[in-house]
Write a structure and sequence with these properties.
- By secondary structure, this protein is of the alpha+beta class.
- It has one domain.
- A four-stranded antiparallel beta sheet has the order 1-2-3-4.
- A hairpin with a 3-residue loop joins strand 2 and strand 3.
- The longest helix is centred in the middle third of the chain and has 14 residues.
- The radius of gyration is 14 Å and the shape is globular.
Length: 134
């Protein structure tokens, strides 16, 4: 299992799972990875391969914290502040690097995948994707 995780991390970090040509130049400047843009009027990126890449990145990211306890608390706070009326809560946090993390986030009637990055000592939301809504 550990070798599979290490292989997955190696693929992610080497760009083997990177989706190129889909994120805006601003997003590329602020992250170690490019992130698919959400399709206009749709909650998840199109084509479907983009959604698979996001899910694969999450699945292969490290479950072991690559940041401190204060980083984890700051990530929770940053995500909750992104959509305060939704009462967001992080249910699963994964690490792509010490400065880039992905979180599975629940709201009352929805689930999201958030991507956050630590920039100049502050955690910021790079993007988020709606997985489902009821």
């Amino acid at each position: 299992m550990k070798s599979k995780l290490l292989l997955g991390l190696a693929l992610v970090l080497s760009g083997g799972l990177m989706f190129t040509g889909c994120s805006s130049p601003t997003q590329r400047q602020h992250a170690e990875f490019s992130w698919p843009e959400k399709a206009k009027g749709l909650p998840w990126p199109q084509p479907m391969e983009s959604a698979k890449i996001i899910q694969e990145r999450f699945n292969h990211a490290s479950k072991e914290a690559l940041g401190s306890g204060s980083d984890i608390a700051a990530i929770d706070k940053t995500i909750a502040a992104n959509q305060p009326r939704q009462r967001l809560r992080v249910t699963d946090l994964r690490w792509l690097s010490p400065t880039v993390a992905m979180a599975k986030v629940r709201a009352m009637e929805a689930e999201y995948i958030y991507v956050v990055e630590k920039k100049e000592g502050q955690w910021v939301v790079l993007t988020y994707y709606l997985k489902w809504i009821s």
